Amino acid sequence: MEKGPPSYDQAHAPAPAAYPHPVQQAPTSFQNQTTVIVTSAQVGPDPTTLTCPSCRATIVTRLEYETTTKTHICAAILCLFICWPCVCIPYCSTSCRDANHYCPNCGSYIGTYRK
């Protein structure tokens, strides 16, 4: 005589616990929500006078130049045309690099001028 798994008797199973439903409260007041969209300032290749969006001070932006793919392509073209002594010119010139504008007071990023 083989014994199988014990049978489950539903009559002796414990009843599921009754959980009270949480009371949902209706909102008592509505608050006005304002959405502020910040766009980057229109900046150029030179330092620009504007109001900083972070510290709200009137400033003249601080520039930092960044080399880009365009800078490397200009240097490669000079190298291809056997002007290898002039390869460093795109890296020293500001005309082949992007100008990143920063606030001199708080240091926040304001915008980039791409040529």
From TrEMBL:
<comment type="similarity">
    <text>Belongs to the CDIP1/LITAF family.</text>
</comment>
<feature type="compositionally biased region" description="Low complexity">
    <location>
        <begin position="10"/>
        <end position="27"/>
    </location>
</feature>
<feature type="domain" description="LITAF">
    <location>
        <begin position="32"/>
        <end position="115"/>
    </location>
</feature>
<keyword id="KW-0472">Membrane</keyword>
<dbReference type="Pfam" id="PF10601">
    <property type="entry name" value="zf-LITAF-like"/>
</dbReference>
<dbReference type="GO" id="GO:0005765">
    <property type="term" value="C:lysosomal membrane"/>
</dbReference>
<dbReference type="InterPro" id="IPR006629">
    <property type="entry name" value="LITAF"/>
</dbReference>
<dbReference type="GO" id="GO:0046872">
    <property type="term" value="F:metal ion binding"/>
</dbReference>
<keyword id="KW-0862">Zinc</keyword>
<feature type="region of interest" description="Disordered">
    <location>
        <begin position="1"/>
        <end position="29"/>
    </location>
</feature>
<protein>
    <recommendedName>
        <fullName>LITAF domain-containing protein</fullName>
    </recommendedName>
</protein>
<dbReference type="InterPro" id="IPR037519">
    <property type="entry name" value="LITAF_fam"/>
</dbReference>
<keyword id="KW-0479">Metal-binding</keyword>
<dbReference type="GO" id="GO:0031902">
    <property type="term" value="C:late endosome membrane"/>
</dbReference>
